């Protein structure tokens, strides 16, 4: 492709392929600088061809680039939201695990307290039964002592009951019965 001057560029519309080919031709045909690998290229022509190449880019490519940028932004936003969701879910799971652990510990404590209460109730019941048994045993002993005293008194009275009534001894105190050496009853015997 031959180089075009500014008037020629402005009069015709070139395609992307033509612009890139013209740039390549300018670089290939450029004069080499002495003692260097660099070449001299006409700046205005190169810049014009680059602009023409950009203008010649199909709209779809530009739109695709926009779509790719938007896709990248959406992906970043989705990644950020996913990280937030994961963080929230992790925190919630930790709270649930903690709540579950608290419930487990509370159940263990409640079960332990119930067991201790049952044991204390059984101990108190046994102590109460033992106390009542001791009191009943004491009453039994006292009643047996009373019963023995009553029997002894009746036995002593039996011969007197067969005697005729003596008006001189209205209380029948001729002979006092022996009730264990004491005229008084002791219930704690």
Task: Describe the protein's architecture and organization.
With 189 residues, the protein is an all-alpha fold. Among the domains are: 6-57; 58-131. It has four helices and two strands, in the order ααββαα. The chain has helices at 6-11, 16-29, 43-56, 59-162, and strands at residues 31-32, 39-40. The chain has a two-stranded antiparallel sheet. Strand 1 and strand 2 (39-40) form a beta hairpin. Helix 2 runs antiparallel to helix 3. It is rod-shaped and about 175 Å long.
How do the strands and helices of this protein lay out in sequence?
Blueprint: H1 6-11, H2 16-29, E1 31-32, E2 39-40, H3 43-56, H4 59-162
Antiparallel strand pairs: 1-2
Helix pairs in contact: 2-3
Distance between the termini: 143 Å
- Computed over alpha carbons, the radius of gyration is 62 Å
Give me the number of helical elements.
4
Q: How much of the polypeptide forms β-strand, as a percent range?
A: under 5%
Largest sheet: 2 strands, antiparallel
Unreliably modeled segments: none
Strand tally is 2
Give me the secondary-structure category. mainly alpha
Summary?
The chain is an all-alpha fold. It has four helices and two strands; from the N terminus they run ααββαα.
Keywords:
single chain; 189 residues; mainly alpha; two-stranded antiparallel sheet; 4 helices; rod-shaped
């Amino acid at each position: 492709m031959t180089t075009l001057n500014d008037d020629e560029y402005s009069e015709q519309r070139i395609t992307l392929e033509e612009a890139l080919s013209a740039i390549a031709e300018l670089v290939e045909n450029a004069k080499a600088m002495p003692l260097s690998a660099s070449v001299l290229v006409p700046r205005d022509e190169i810049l014009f061809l680059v602009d023409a190449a950009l203008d010649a880019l199909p709209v779809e490519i530009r739109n695709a680039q926009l779509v790719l940028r938007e896709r990248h932004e959406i992906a970043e936003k989705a990644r950020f939201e996913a990280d937030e969701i994961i963080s929230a879910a992790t925190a919630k799971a930790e709270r649930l695990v903690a709540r579950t652990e608290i419930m487990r510990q509370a159940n263990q404590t409640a079960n332990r307290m119930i067991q201790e209460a049952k044991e204390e109730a059984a101990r108190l019941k046994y102590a109460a039964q033992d106390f009542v048994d001791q009191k009943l045993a004491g009453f039994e002993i006292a009643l047996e002592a009373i019963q023995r005293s009553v029997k002894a008194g009746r036995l002593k009275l039996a011969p007197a009951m067969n005697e005729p009534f003596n008006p001189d001894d209205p209380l029948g105190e001729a002979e006092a019965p022996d009730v264990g050496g004491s005229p008084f009853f002791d219930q704690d015997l």
